[in-house]
Design a protein that fits this description.
The chain is of the alpha/beta class. It folds into 2 domains: 327 residues, Rossmann fold (3-Layer(aba) Sandwich); 99 residues, GMP Synthetase, Chain A, domain 3, CATH 3.30.300. Strand 16 and strand 17 form a beta hairpin. Bound molecules: 5'-O-[hydroxy(phenylacetyl)phosphoryl]adenosine. The site of 5'-O-[hydroxy(phenylacetyl)phosphoryl]adenosine has 22 residues, from helix 6, strand 7, strand 8 and strand 12.
Length: 433
C-alpha cells in the first residue's frame, strides 16, 4: 500500500506552502536550463524573482503540444540526455509525436504516483494485476507495471490485444485487477460471453481504466458486465503518464497528485483562470519533474476542480471525471457537439450496444452527421418494423438533445471495429478534403 498520508491528507495552507517552494525551484531550473522558457519569460518581462508562490503561476506563459512539437525531439528537456534513462512518446492524431524523457528520479516519482493511484483504487499487495495497456512508447503499460510492483502486487505484463490469451490468463492466474482502456474492458466482457466462459472462473474485482474519455453510463455497463468496481484513472505522457489523478473507492472525482502536478482550470478561449467548480481546460505545472518539466501545460481536457475533503480522508484536490477535450469538440452546422453527449444518449437505449461511430461529412456545402450504432444481437433477429421504430427513437433522442438533424444507421453486432487500445469513435471526412 502506498498512501503518503503526509502529502495526500495535507491541510490546504500546508499544500500551498509546499507547492510554492517547489514552484520557485522549478522556475529557477527551467529559466537557466531551457532556452525556450527563458526566451518566453523574457519576452513577457519576467525573471525567476517574479515567481514567489502559487499565486504567481498565472503570470507565466502557457506551454502547448505545438511547443513540444516545435522543439522535437529533446528541445524542452531541462537536463542533458546523459541524465535521461527512459524515453516515451505519444503518437497523437496529427503531426509529429511528442517525446518525453525521464531521469532516474522521475521514474521513481512515476512509480510512486502510480502506486498511489492503485492504492486509491483499493488494490493491495495480494492482488494479481493483469496489465492489458500497451507496452512500448505508450506510457500505459510500463507506467502501471512499475506502480504495481511498487505496491508489491503480482504484475502480469500481458500488454494489449490477443483477447483469447487475455481471457485464458485471467482464468488461469486468478487475475483480480484488470488495467486497460474502458473500451477494451467492454470488448473483453463481450468476449467472455461469446466464448461461453464460466463466469465463476473470472475473479476480477477491480478495473483501473483510463487513457480515453468514458461516461458514467459506460462505467455502469462495464461494472455490470465484468463484475468489477470500475475506477477511472487519468494521466498524460507529457505530465508523466498514468498517475496524474485517480478516483478512490468512492468514485466521486479523481484525486490529483498535486504535490507533484499543480492543476489549474482556464477558460480555453480567454485563457483566464476559472474558480473552483467552473468547467474549463485543465492546465498542469510539474513541480518535481527533472527531465521534462512543464510550466502551465495546456492539456485540452475539460473538467472542473473540487477542493472539498473526500470521504476517503484525502485532501488532494479532485478533478471531475473528464469526458471531453476542447479539441474533441465537433462543430457541426455551427453547433458544438461532444462525442460524450452522444455516447450518453446511446447508452440509455437498452436495445443498442455501447459501440458506435460518428461520421461527419460535408455534402453540397452542408455538414451531415451520421451515427452508426450496433444493435444488441438478440434484437437484430426481430422484425424490420421494430428496427424502424428503434431507429426513430434514437434519432428523436439525439435530435432533441443536439438540436441538429442526425442520420442514424443501425448496424449488426460486431460491425464496428473493436479497439485494443484507445477507441476511435469519430471520422471527420470534412478535414480530409
Ligand atoms: O493515455 C496515459 C494513461 C495511460 C492514462 C493509462 C491512464 C491510463 P496519452 O497517450 O499521452 O497518455 O494520452 C493523454 O488521454 O490528455 C486525455 O485526453 C486522455 N485521457 C487519459 N486518461 C483519461 C481519462 C495516457 N481517465 C490523453 N479520462 C489525455 C478521459 C483521458 N480522458
Amino acid at each position: 500500500m502506498i498512501w503518503n498520508k503526509t502529502n495526500e491528507c495535507m491541510q490546504r495552507d500546508e499544500m500551498i506552502t509546499l507547492q510554492s517552494e517547489k514552484l520557485c525551484e522549478l522556475i529557477d531550473r527551467v529559466y537557466f536550463n531551457v532556452p525556450y522558457y527563458r526566451e518566453k519569460m523574457q519576452k513577457d518581462g519576467l525573471g525567476p524573482d517574479d515567481i514567489k508562490n502559487v499565486d504567481d503561476l498565472k503570470k507565466l506563459p502557457f506551454t502547448t503540444k505545438d511547443d513540444l512539437r516545435d522543439n522535437y525531439p529533446f528541445g524542452l528537456f531541462a537536463l542533458p540526455t546523459s541524465e535521461i534513462i527512459r524515453l516515451h512518446a505519444s503518437s497523437g492524431t496529427t503531426g509529429k509525436s511528442t517525446v518525453v524523457g525521464y531521469t532516474r528520479k522521475d521514474l521513481a516519482t512515476w512509480s510512486e504516483v502510480v502506486a498511489r493511484t492503485l492504492t486509491c483504487a483499493g488494490v493491495e499487495r495480494n492482488d494479481f494485476i493483469q496489465i492489458a495497456y500497451g507496452y512500448g512508447l505508450f506510457t500505459g503499460g510500463l507506467g502501471l507495471h512499475y506502480g504495481g510492483e511498487k505496491i508489491g502486487a503480482v504484475v502480469i505484463p500481458v500488454s494489449g490485444g490477443n483477447t483469447g490469451r487475455q481471457l485464458q490468463i485471467m482464468q488461469d492466474f486468478n487475475t483480480t485487477v484488470l488495467a486497460c482502456t474502458p473500451s477494451y474492458a467492454l470488448y473483453l466482457a463481450e468476449s467472455i460471453d461469446e466464448m461461453n466462459i464460466d463466469r465463476n472462473k473470472i475473479k476480477l474485482k477491480t478495473g483501473v481504466f483510463g487513457a480515453e474519455p468514458w461516461t458514467e453510463n459506460m462505467r455502469n455497463e462495464i461494472e455490470k458486465k465484468l463484475g468489477v468496481k470500475a475506477i477511472d484513472i487519468y494521466g498524460l505522457s507529457e505530465i508523466i503518464g498514468p498517475g496524474v489523478a485517480s478516483e478512490c473507492i468512492f468514485q466521486n472525482g479523481l484525486h490529483v497528485n498535486e504535490d507533484h502536478f499543480i492543476p489549474e482550470i482556464i477558460d480555453p478561449v480567454t485563457l483566464e483562470p476559472l474558480s473552483e467548480g467552473e468547467e474549463g481546460e485543465l492546465v498542469f505545472t510539474t513541480i518535481t519533474k527533472e527531465g521534462l518539466p512543464l510550466v502551465r501545460y495546456r492539456t485540452r481536457d475539460l473538467t472542473s476542480l473540487n477542493y472539498q475533503e473526500c470521504e476517503c480522508g484525502r485532501t488532494l484536490v479532485r478533478m471531475k471525471k473528464c469526458t471531453g477535450r476542447s479539441d474533441d469538440m465537433l462543430i457541426i452546422r455551427g453547433v458544438n457537439i461532444f462525442p460524450s453527449t452522444i455516447e450518453s444518449i446511446l447508452l440509455e437505449i437498452s436495445e443498442t450496444t455501447p459501440h458506435y461511430l460518428l461520421i461527419i461529412d460535408r455534402i453540397n456545402n452542408m455538414d451531415v452527421l451520421q451515427v452508426l450504432v450496433e444493435v444488441d444481437q438478440q434484437f437484430f433477429l426481430d422484425r424490420i418494423g421494430q428496427l424502424e421504430s428503434l431507429k426513430q427513437k434514437i434519432r428523436n433522442s439525439l435530435e432533441s438533445t443536439l438540436g441538429i438533424g442526425v442520420d442514424v444507421k443501425l448496424v449488426e453486432h460486431k460491425t464496428i471495429e473493436r479497439s485494443e487500445g484507445k477507441a476511435k469513435r469519430v471520422i471527420d471526412k470534412r478535414k480530409l478534403t
